[in-house]
């Protein structure tokens, strides 16, 4: 996946300006940044839903386009159909070209749904009503939907938002295992990055229209984030966590786990 001199805008406002980066195939990338930094806008652009103001974007060596089956997407908020719809029917609703109400999906479609459920260990949810499922169980079904077309890229927009800490880590580990087994590139945005630490390969940090891509040790530092924000920023590590704060005691911009880290970076 690559972006070359890409500028993205939303509602007439430039969100990301002249971004260039390359993400190796098979990488697990945590996408960070404050609300409004451009995380969702970036995902929409990679899906071909929002054209770039300038620049070029490629996935698997091909220009980004809408409806690319190589890209699986889990949106930030998804209204789930409840009632007596089963987990199997919910996953099947995302089959390419299918709509709710069709009684027959074909042998290949049924096999794809069964395989996707198995991939996320959700076979036991297949016949259960969606309305009775927990947040974590519903997230497993949403993840199964993204796998139906056997994508090489997954864009996951804050998939941990509604989960408790134990389910967060469990979900990230499941995604990490899937990504490794299938050599998928994963971009996962997160409000709480803690569960991703130790599993992601790179951090993509968005701020003030700019982007910084690198390892956690390269990106989550006082020097790097001060340069990115264009203002003094302090990275303070305490109690096994790291806080990114505005110099002078401003509110936290981002919080991370950092077991074993020193006092400052």
TrEMBL record:
One of its GO terms (biological process) is zinc ion transport. The keyword Transferase does not apply. Pfam families: ABC_tran (PF00005). This is Iron transporter. One of its GO terms (molecular function) is ATP hydrolysis activity. It comes from Acetobacter malorum. Keywords: ATP-binding, Ion transport, Nucleotide-binding, Transport, Zinc, Zinc transport. Belongs to the ABC transporter superfamily. The keyword Secreted does not apply.
């Amino acid at each position: 996946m690559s972006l070359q001199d890409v500028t993205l805008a939303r509602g007439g406002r430039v969100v990301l300006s002249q971004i260039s980066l390359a993400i190796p195939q098979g990488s697990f990338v945590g996408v960070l940044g404050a609300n409004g930094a451009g995380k969702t806008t970036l995902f929409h652009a990679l899906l071909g839903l929002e054209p770039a103001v300038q620049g070029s974007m490629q996935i698997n060596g091909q220009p980004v386009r809408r409806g690319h089956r190589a890209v699986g997407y889990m949106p930030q908020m998804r209204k789930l159909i409840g009632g007596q719809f089963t987990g199997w029917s919910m996953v099947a609703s995302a089959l390419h070209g299918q709509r709710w109400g069709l009684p027959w999906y074909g042998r290949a479609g049924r096999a794809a749904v069964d395989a996707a459920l198995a991939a996320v260990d959700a076979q036991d949810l297949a016949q259960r009503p969606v309305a009775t499922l927990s947040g974590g169980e519903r997230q497993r079904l949403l993840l199964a939907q993204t796998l139906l077309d056997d994508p090489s890229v997954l864009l996951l927009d804050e998939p941990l938002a509604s989960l408790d800490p134990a389910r967060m880590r469990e979900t990230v580990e499941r995604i990490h295992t899937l990504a490794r087994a299938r050599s998928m590139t994963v971009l996962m945005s997160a409000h709480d990055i803690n569960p991703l630490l130790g599993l992601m390969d790179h951090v993509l940090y968005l701020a003030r229209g700019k982007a910084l891509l690198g390892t956690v040790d390269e990106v989550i530092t006082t020097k790097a984030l001060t340069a990115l924000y264009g203002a003094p920023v302090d990275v303070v590590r305490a109690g096994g966590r790291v806080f990114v704060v505005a110099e002078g005691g401003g509110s936290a911009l981002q919080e991370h786990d950092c077991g074993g880290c020193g006092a400052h970076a």
